[in-house]
């Protein structure tokens, strides 16, 4: 599968100045910018910047950023699922995961998360993928936003809807361990029926494995 990538962008104003949402960008373009030290949701900012530059150069990897002048203040990543996750079983070339999305507190309130997803999906090639996001409440910034679990989930669902991702049932043990957790999915218009069927087996892998053992 040839993982084509076409650059898109959106520019808008905030009270802190103009912001550009753009991508997907390769690592040599990312290196032109600084990475805000507040982007620490997954690991220290300098390590996260190295991680996203690595993802950017994967064949299927995509990094879309939000930047204020020359500083990255938000980003979203797409790549094949982690080899240790159920979603990697079958090595589906047309399955990619929204692995991380983050925006610094200063720029929250400008729908930057939604804009990152919107710009991501401007690339027509994204219609060749099944795109997933695994949402676990213990990764959510409840303290920083002041929202409870259910209000945060509503905000998260609205943001994901900007990219066409909607909740989808699964029997994944981690996801069903709490009712706020969920699997978000977008199935591209050009995804084959055989890939959809294979993905359905992954969504209900526990059930499928049980049937195979009987």
Shape descriptor reads globular
Q: Structural class, please?
A: alpha+beta
Helix fraction, binned, reads 25-40%
Overall structural domain count = 1
Secondary-structure element series = EEHEHEEEHEHHEEHH
Helical stretch tally: 7
Radius of gyration from the alpha-carbon trace, in angstroms = 17 Å
CATH-defined topology: Aminopeptidase
Poorly predicted runs are: 210-214
Major sheet details: 9 strands, mixed
In short:
The chain has seven helices and nine strands.
Explain what the structure shows:
By secondary structure, the protein is of the alpha+beta class. The chain is built from seven helices and nine strands. Strands 1, 2, 3, 4, 5, 6, 7, 8 and 9 form a nine-stranded mixed sheet that branches. Strand 4 and strand 5 form a beta hairpin. The longest helix has 13 residues, at 149-161. The radius of gyration is 17 Å and the shape is globular. The N and C termini lie far apart (35 Å).
Which helices and strands appear, and what pairs or packs with what?
Layout: E1 8-14, E2 17-23, H1 27-30, E3 34-35, H2 45-56, E4 62-68, E5 71-79, E6 95-103, H3 112-120, E7 130-135, H4 142-145, H5 149-161, E8 166-168, E9 182-187, H6 193-203, H7 205-213
Parallel strand pairs: 3-5, 6-7
Antiparallel strand pairs: 1-2, 2-4, 4-5, 5-6, 7-9, 8-9
């Amino acid at each position: 599968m040839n993982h084509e990538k076409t650059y898109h962008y959106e520019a808008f104003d905030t009270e802190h100045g103009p912001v550009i949402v753009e991508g997907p960008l390769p690592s040599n373009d990312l290196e032109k910018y600084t990475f805000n030290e507040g982007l620490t949701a997954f690991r220290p900012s300098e390590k996260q910047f190295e991680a996203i530059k690595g993802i950017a150069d994967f064949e299927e990897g995509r990094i879309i950023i939000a930047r204020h002048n020359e500083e990255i203040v938000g980003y979203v990543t797409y790549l094949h699922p982690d080899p240790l996750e159920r979603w990697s079983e079958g090595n589906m070339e047309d399955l990619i995961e929204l692995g991380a999305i983050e925006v610094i507190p200063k720029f929250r309130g400008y729908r930057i998360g939604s804009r990152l997803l919107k710009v991501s999906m401007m690339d027509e090639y994204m219609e060749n993928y099944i795109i997933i996001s695994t949402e676990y409440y213990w990764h959510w910034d409840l303290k920083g936003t002041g929202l409870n679990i259910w209000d945060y989930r509503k905000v998260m669902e609205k943001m994901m809807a900007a990219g066409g991702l909607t909740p989808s049932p699964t029997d994944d043990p981690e996801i069903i361990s709490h009712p706020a957790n969920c699997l978000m999915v977008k199935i591209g218009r050009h995804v084959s029926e055989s890939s959809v069927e294979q993905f359905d087996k992954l969504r209900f892998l526990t059930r499928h494995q049980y049937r195979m053992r009987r």
